[in-house]
Amino acid sequence: MQNVLFKTSEPTAAIGPVEFYNLSLSFQEIQGRRFSVVQEKHGWWCSETGAATFDEDFASPPEVFDSFSEAVDRYCTLRMEHANAGFMHSFSWHCLTGKPIT
Predict the structure, then answer these.
(1) How far, rounded to the nearest angstrom, does the alpha carbon of residue 39 sit from its chain's CA centroid?
(2) How far apart are CA 20 and CA 32, in angstroms?
(3) 3-state secondary structure of 67
(4) 18 near 6, Cβ under 8 Å?
(5) Is the CB of residue 48 less than 8 Å from the CB of residue 39?
(6) What is the domain count for the chain?
């Protein structure tokens, strides 16, 4: 599961860099066990270059959960925190172009 959250409903039409948060929930096998992992990345989308730049200084290590339910709760909490801060428009990355799509 993945959401790319923007403050604007049209990030591909914006002039200049547009801030976003990329939230993901995935399964990973670690030492033979399956865990749910929530990760958050911060960056900027630039329509002029058609590329995303990720903030290397944004320190958000993957959060590992034994329980899928706990991971979903954390994922939803992060989404709500960002929505409350104005990042309420949800997108995903297009698999071929790399652009944000609804």
Answers:
(1) 8
(2) 34
(3) coil
(4) yes
(5) no
(6) 1
